[in-house]
Amino acid sequence: MLPSSLSTPENLQTLTSDIKSWAVEFGFAEARIVEPDLAQYKDEFKQWLDNEYHAGMDYLANHGDMRFYPEQLHPGTRRVISLRMHYLPQSVETVERLKTKDKAYIARYALGRDYHKLIRKRLTQLAKKIEQTVGDHGYRAFVDSAPILERQIAEQAGMGWIGKNTLLLTPKAGSWFLLGEIFTNLPLPVDKPTPSRHCGSCTACLTQCPTDAFVEPWVLDAGKCISYLTIEHKGAIPEELRSKMGNRIFGCDDCQLVCPWTKFAKYTEESDFQPRHDLDSADLISLFEWDEATFLKNTEGSPIRRTGYENWQRNIAVALGNAPSNEATINSLAKALPNATDMVKEHIRWALEKHSHKYEH
């Protein structure tokens, strides 16, 4: 039962305009409203799973059809408020850092505070602001935290289109932003969907992926993706992919960096997205020499904590194998070898062999 203040289309339209204004006040770049139609993606998603392109992310195969029917995730859902927030700090280098092989490259969303915490807080603030105006509206907020087809929802809301690199693109800001959603029981007026995808004949993201992770446009084999390998993957990194990883130790931005729409990127004004511990310019050796206590301390409240200390060392060992050969790099690898786990030792030995260094096993 809607409150009388929302009994007319005009009142609902006014509320929708207010929601979009409040979203900007809470730090979002944009908010759009959609009544999603997601069942159309079931066959495509099932085929992707059947091809095992989700690699070791078994959770993507869970939850049945819930991701295609929002009302199963939040009963009573009538609309989804799709929101985006810029995360790229203006002061941070991107392409130049990838070229500096003795420096670490960390995906730019992960340099500061964990975006889950920041965006979830703002989503909740917005939902409560709506509640103050209309009363209990039945809502649930999400940020990369449930089986949700968030990019498809955003595309249907007219926020942009899904590019060939599987990321959401918008002519307003490229793809340097994060998404969040509020599922609501309010029958808000909806925005028009994006009429078409504007990638044209461009294939830069496909052809310049370091590990050739794209099977075809809009189809990613996660098992070859550097973001998956450095964050989600457990165990040894396939040897044939190690040299292709360069100095990327947590995530990868290459398919964004080569996208022509990147030139329209907007920078974040959020202090929480600013780099911590000089992670945007840190030397590989200095990061490799963190002990576990230092890793846990320096990644507190950071998305980097997700990969764990052992995989952090594994990733950096690979990057050091791809770094310029010099005494400092070789000594750092050799020094870490005796006390490393068996899995990390494999990658250290690979790195040392790349530097043609003689050492005792």
Alpha-carbon distance between the termini?
Answer: 72 Å
Poorly predicted ranges: none
What's the helix count?
15
Largest sheet descriptor: 4 strands, antiparallel
Q: What's the number of domains?
A: 2
Q: Output the radius of gyration.
A: 22 Å
> Which class best fits the helix and strand makeup?
alpha+beta
Helix content: 25-40%
What is the subunit organization of this protein? single chain
H/E element sequence: HEHHEHEHEHEEEHEEHHEHHHHHH
| Averaged pLDDT | 94
List how many beta strands DSSP finds: 10
Could you tell me the strand content as a percent range?
A: 5-15%
The best one-word shape is: elongated
Strand order of the largest sheet: 1-2-7-4
Describe this structure in words.
With 361 residues, the protein is of the alpha+beta class. It folds into 2 domains: 4-89 and 110-184, no CATH class; 204-354, no CATH class. Helices cover 36% and strands 11% of the residues. It contains 15 helices and 10 strands. It has helices at residues 9-25, 42-50, 70-73, 95-99, 115-134, 150-156, 204-207, 226-232, 239-242, 254-257, 284-288, 292-298, 309-321, 327-336, 342-354, and strands spanning 30-34, 79-86, 105-106, 139-142, 161-162, 168-169, 177-184, 214-216, 219-220, 248-250. The strands form 4 sheets. It has a 4-stranded antiparallel β-sheet, with helices on both faces. β5 and β6 (168-169) form a beta hairpin. α13 packs parallel to α15 (342-354) and α14 (327-336) packs antiparallel against α15 (342-354). It is elongated.
